[in-house]
Amino acid sequence: xxxxxxxxxxxxxxxxxxxxxxxxxxxxxxxxxxxxxxxxxxxxxxxxxxxxxxxxxxxxxxxxxxxxxxxxxxxxxxxxxxxxxxxxxxxxxxxxxxxxxxxxxxxxxxxxxxxxxxxxxxxxxxxxxxxxxxxxxxxxxxxxxxxxxxxxxxxxxxxxxxxxxxxxxxxxxxxxxxxxxxxxxxxxxxxxxxxxxxxxxxxxxxxxxxxxxxxxxxxxxxxxxxxxxxxxxxxxxxxxxxxxxxxxxxxxxxxxxxxxxxxxxxxxxxxxxxxxxxxxxxxxxxxxxxxxxxxxxxxxxxxxxxxxxxxxxxxxxxxxxxxxxxxxxxxxxxxxxxxx
Length: 340
What we know:
The chain is an all-alpha fold and 340 residues long. The chain has helices spanning 20-24, 36-47, 55-64, 66-73, 79-99, 104-119, 129-142, 147-173, 179-189, 192-202, 209-212, 215-243, 249-257, 261-283, 291-314, 326-332; strands spanning 14-16, 334-336.
């Protein structure tokens, strides 16, 4: 289906966005790691080690506040693990930014470099920044992560790059996918699945593969992924709409359901609330395997919960979506569309 213009819907000067943190209420506990400042400083030095400290790049990096995101999503991580996670999340944001300007062939080339760097860390030679950075953080992860965590990390990174490639093809064709296809694709373009493998790494877990295949675990992961992805779609909509980027659930709802902009935002907000509700329902109905496995599963699910409450908190502490206006928007919940 070819894209029709989203501008046929009414174009308000602002949209009202949901207060999802309040909806989480007392069901989720926000924690912030005490290692945040130290690790953030070290990761910043790592990121700029092979790049120049231009004023614009430095301001963008500081405004991103990736160290805070990691400190609320992996609050129980030790210094070593938290540093790897901060480097990895910074790397993901970096790739997300540069991939917006890549065509399909460039994305495929970048994917080959990164995945060869990860799979063949000692034998694959590259001078590309995205390759050398990937080798560096993965080598540190590899030192202590369980085989299962490493396998899931590599597998989900493959899925991430495949989905980014598909996103690029859709963007070039001016194609807005149907809602079901978008949900499936978005669960991979979000990068969440690799971030969930990092929970295993951070908490030194060694959960059997068959446990991860259990439907309840899958639903918990999907609910977390959907909340992260769809809340991000709402918060980033202003910026993406201005660029004409339609890889966003709000745009999908406008296009396929014929909703105006505010109704589409409200629709996605309701999907976010349902994802939170489903997570809580599945968390209350976890099966039992054995005392050891149950203990580790509980820690893993706690890690998923940290992602839900953490991403909602961080979204108004970063300048990535709302710039310097984030705190003001958090009070009014109104986002003016003219100021991107």
